[in-house]
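Before relying on records like the one below, remember that each one covers exactly one chain. Contacts with other chains, cofactors or solvent are not represented anywhere in the record.
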Amino acid sequence: FSNATSQFSNTSFPNPGAFRLAGGYNITPMFAVEAGYAMIGDSKITSVAGAATVTETLKTSSLQVAGVANYAINDAFGVFGKLGFANTKVDYTASVVGGTFVAGVVTAASGSKTNLTFGLGGQYNINKQFAIRAQYEDLGKVTLGGGAGDIGIKMVSIGGAYNF
């Protein structure tokens, strides 16, 4: 996450893990299309002030579709670039235990936006069917309601690919 900080302190939300499932079709050896869904784990900040404990949570998910340009360096290694669209949703909640919020505190906000997305990566082909991929994807920014601001979402991942 970028520009995702607590409204109660200057603490940034930690980067959570994510699970992404995608499928695609190789139109040619150099061009493919891909669609995917990412469930990005909850990111939480807990603040303590006196007897009150405040927990803030970001929940994020994204649906993507992209064109993928592939370049084989040799039989084992290749690189790729992606360009497409991502519809990303972010939900923010804040809860308090042992106290109450003052007026003006945002306790819930959400936003959803379709952005241009891009990515870069590399692939190691174990054989003709299995490969290991590493990639970086920028899913754009989502504006949360309630004045919570714009949150940028980027993913770095390592995964596997299976070719039919």
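The mean pLDDT is 91.
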